[in-house]
Design brief:
Layout (H helix, E strand, L loop, with lengths): L2 E5 L6 H9 L16 E6 L4 H9 L3 E3 L2 E6 L16 H7 L3 E7 L15 H32 L3 H18 L11 H6 L11 E6 L9 H13 L2 E5 L1 H9 L2 H11 L6 H11 L2 E7 L3 E8 L4 H8 L1 H5 L1 E7 L1 H6 L3 H6 L4 E3 L10 E6 L2
Parallel strand pairs: 1-4, 1-5, 3-9, 5-6, 6-7
Antiparallel strand pairs: 2-4, 8-9, 10-11, 10-12
Helix pairs in contact: 1-8, 4-5
The structure holds guanosine-5'-diphosphate (GDP).
The site of guanosine-5'-diphosphate has 20 residues, from helix 1 and helix 8.
Protein name: Ribosome-binding ATPase YchF
Organism: Thiomicrorhabdus lithotrophica
Cofactor: Mg(2+)
């Protein structure tokens, strides 16, 4: 499953956001380190298309695509040197596919800020530097390891050493590895190091209810993110937590009152999906209508492999109907009759919303 790690300084609203996301109701208290164990919540990706498909197919159940969110506590200044919860958080971040960094953009005198004042740019710098320090460690170790072999004249080792040294020089100036501009081959070469700052990252600017506009703190985060080519999503985590606790009917009423058509959390989940370059395809049968997650650019066999690895190995072909064609023609039979169902082979690049049936050997 796709996993996003939620990081940020203490008291910025990580647990509040996590609670809202999972509606798990874990303790969110006003003191640092309140979430000591990493918590994982499985969060459905909001997508109205599943319901539209279900109305046509009448399946026994509807299964949305999901993203795992992991609440990662313990990232404080000096963490990479063993401060706070020490290096534990690093191991957790290493496991994730993307980093969601919560940044406090709300003032509230009752809620202490670990650095003494609300300054999102400074906060981001602290977090990012800890990640960079951790990567620096990994690079240093890798350099030591490859240096001896390179000295003996091994070409591959020399090339690796040169690449590692180039990265070392860049991150020494505080540059995140993802911003160095490494090409695909170079990224592949360093994959085994599981660097942290190579992962895609987005900022969640946590604002007060009235903090979405005319908020200099939010503006400053947006400005910094633009320079870094990073995404910013502004939400009010405490409000989202309240919304998440309502039942569906109350939720709809509440959102309508606020002039919104969906919870702000949906934007977080979708941004995460977008950040990772993901898209959705569907299977639609009488047993279930289900959304599956694949990378943009995935081939039909790779898409089949998300369901089961045997499907990928034994892939023969796929019957594919574009989402809109499926809906317009009220299902498989109609789409087929209208000539809108295609037979696609191994090379087919899956498009977002494709409704697919796979044929395979077992
Ligand atoms: P964590 O340490 O980053 O996990 O932070 P918490 O989620 O525990 O939040 C710290 C405190 O800030 C809690 O008392 C929250 O209720 C409060 N808080 C979180 N988000 C917001 C927000 O958007 N506005 C305001 N005013 N308070 C918030």
């Amino acid at each position: 499953a796709i996993k996003c790690g939620i990081v940020g300084l203490p008291n910025v609203g990580k647990s509040t956001l996590f609670n809202a996301l999972t509606n798990a109701g874990i303790e969110s208290a006003n003191y640092p380190f309140c979430t000591i164990e990493p918590n994982v919540g499985v969060v459905p990706v909001p997508d109205a298309r599943e319901q539209a498909l279900a109305e046509i197919v009448n399946p026994e159940r509807v299964m949305p695509a999901t993203v795992d969110f992991m609440d990662i506590a313990g990232l404080v200044e000096g963490a990479s040197k063993g401060e706070g919860l020490g290096n534990k958080f690093l191991a957790n971040i290493r496991e994730t596919d993307a980093i969601v960094q919560v940044v406090r953009c709300f003032e509230n005198d009752d809620i202490v800020h670990v650095a003494g004042k609300v300054d999102p740019i400074n906060d981001i710098e602290i977090i990012n530097m800890e990640l960079v320090f951790a990567d620096q460690d990994s690079i240093d170790k890798a350099i030591q390891k490859v240096q001896r072999v390179a000295k003996s004249g091994d070409k591959e080792a020399s090339a690796r050493l040169a690449l590692l040294q180039k990265i070392h020089a860049e991150i020494e100036t505080g540059t995140l590895v993802r911003n160095i501009g490494l090409n695909e081959d170079e990224l592949k070469e360093i994959q085994d190091l599981h660097l942290l700052t190579v992962k895609p990252m987005m900022y969640i600017a946590n604002v007060n209810e009235d903090g979405f506009e005319n908020n200099p703190l939010l503006d400053s985060v947006r400005e910094l993110a633009e320079k870094q080519g990073a995404v910013v999503v502004a939400i009010c985590a405490s409000l989202e937590e309240e919304i998440a606790q309502l039942d569906d009917e109350d939720k709809a009423d509440f959102l309508e009152e606020m002039g919104q058509d969906e919870p702000g959390l949906n934007r977080v989940i979708r941004a995460g999906y977008e950040l990772l370059g993901l898209q959705t395809y569907f299977t639609a049968g009488v047993k279930e209508v289900r959304a599956w997650t694949v990378k943009k650019g995935a081939t039909a066999p790779q898409a089949a492999g998300v369901i089961h690895t045997d499907f990928e190995k034994g892939f023969i072909r796929a019957e594919v109907t574009a989402y809109q064609d499926f809906v317009d023609n009220k299902g498989d039979a109609g789409a087929k009759a209208a000539g809108k169902q295609r037979l696609e082979g191994k090379e087919y690049i899956v498009q977002d919303g494709d409704v697919m049936h796979f044929r395979f050997n077992v």
